[in-house]
Amino acid sequence: MEQRFPFLNSLQDFSLERGKSRSFLIFLALSFLFWMITKFSNEYTEVLTARRRFRNLVVKFDFIIPIE
Fold this sequence. Notes:
Radius of gyration: 33 Å
Distance between the termini: 105 Å
Shape: rod-shaped
């Protein structure tokens, strides 16, 4: 069979290399996923200051404060 189909050996070698590449890419993606999870699981605190301006703001007070 080897003499009749010599391309099968090269095809098997290619499929083995392709399997190695595929498993490498899968493990690379998994390691990237775990790295992202651990990186973003940390809690960060930051103080932001922002100026706000409201236009046409209608303030309506519908409650009564009892005076004792």
